[in-house]
Fold:
Amino acid sequence: MSVRTERDTLMGFLEAQRSSVLAILEGLDEQAVHREMVPSGWTPVGMIRHLAMAERFWFQEVLTGGTSATSLAAGPPVPGVACDSHEALRFYREQAALSDRQLSAAPLDEPPLGDVPSDLFDEITDVRALILHMIEETARHAGHLDIARELIDGRTGLGPR
Structure:
């Protein structure tokens, strides 16, 4: 029996949530992923774009201190953003892969090198908390997407969790 490290456990939970997000959207056509699901106007494809930008913001900006000209992660999914679902899913997978590469070299007990938003400054004090925050963010929006999928075609409980 192998013993999992803390990093393996954290990354396993993050990957499970990412996989759930992707599984929930699998098989939906362009019309379905662009359907506005709630009065605020967000769409499933907009939620994927939001999650991709959150990956970019938290792991490429906050974690490393880098900058991005397209940082939108702090806000909600942008209503009405025109984006092809295949492009949005590609971008999400790409950002997750970049995040994983950044995280592989980051000690869990080290503070992030970039600026943590002021409302989370006391909460996100190290890389461990940063990963936990992204697990929480992804799980929260996986729940939103799960409800959207049920409203679209009645399917629920998709994904590994």
